[in-house]
Amino acid sequence: MENEKQQLEALKDIRKMMQESSKFLSLSGLSGVFAGIYALVGAYLGYVEISKATTYNELYRGAYNTQEYNDTYSVLKFKIVFICAAVLFLSLLTAFILTAKKAKKNNEKLFDRTSKKVLWNMMVPLAAGGFFCFILLYHGKDYFLLISPAMLLFYGMALINSSKFVMHDIKILGYLEIILGLTACLFLGYGILFWALGFGVLHIIYGIYMWFKFDRVK
User: Fold this and answer.
1) 23 touches 165 (CB < 8 A)
2) What is the mean pLDDT of residues 176-197?
């Protein structure tokens, strides 16, 4: 009986090692925290720009198709796209730096077979979501309010799609992003708020949780 118990424990250890070897474990929890901070700053800047266009409600209750209205929308659209692009760039840059540092510390390759699978499984939904958001912008101001929910939904699907190659906990974040995205569809006038919650608050909470679970020196 004792021998059988030892064999079972050995098999469990081997299974655990095989599972971990097939997952990319060098993602830094701090990168999630920084991404959340960048998103909150971006949400604030976006709110300021929308407020400069008088108020959110006034913008969409104004005289449609006048030159002044169209100019206001065009400038606002450019500024929002720029803010989102800046948040994305800073988040990716920070994630790359911190993840590379963690991979080096753990004697792991940053771009191995598993990490490439993670990138591919994330990039397909993210790329589709990005093109979809640009299509919404192309169709004009009537679809502008759907961009924030769409970003949350596609991002959530990207996290779930890549979760089989990283820590399982990331799937929970993906589900929460999708729930927020669907809820944002019901409250279209509060897109900035839901964007801040999804990309800001949830990222910070998730990043802190992952840091305590995997990154903190025990």
Assistant:
1) yes
2) 92
CA distance 19 to 216: 22
CB 67 within 8 A of CB 10: no
Structural domain spans, the chain: 29-215
What is the value of pTM for the model shown? 0.76
At 40-63, the pLDDT tens digits run 999 999 888 877 765 544 555 555
Evaluate whether 169 touches 195 at the Cβ level (below 8 Å): no
The whole-angstrom separation of Cα 161 and Cα 121 is 6
With beta carbons less than 8 A apart as the criterion, state whether 35 and 95 touch: yes
Dihedral sign, Cα of residue 162, residue 213, residue 35, residue 93 = negative
Instruction: Specify the 3-state DSSP secondary structure of 216.
Output: coil
How far are the Cα atoms of 15, 74, 134, 151, 195 from residue 44, in angstroms, in the given order? 46, 19, 22, 17, 11
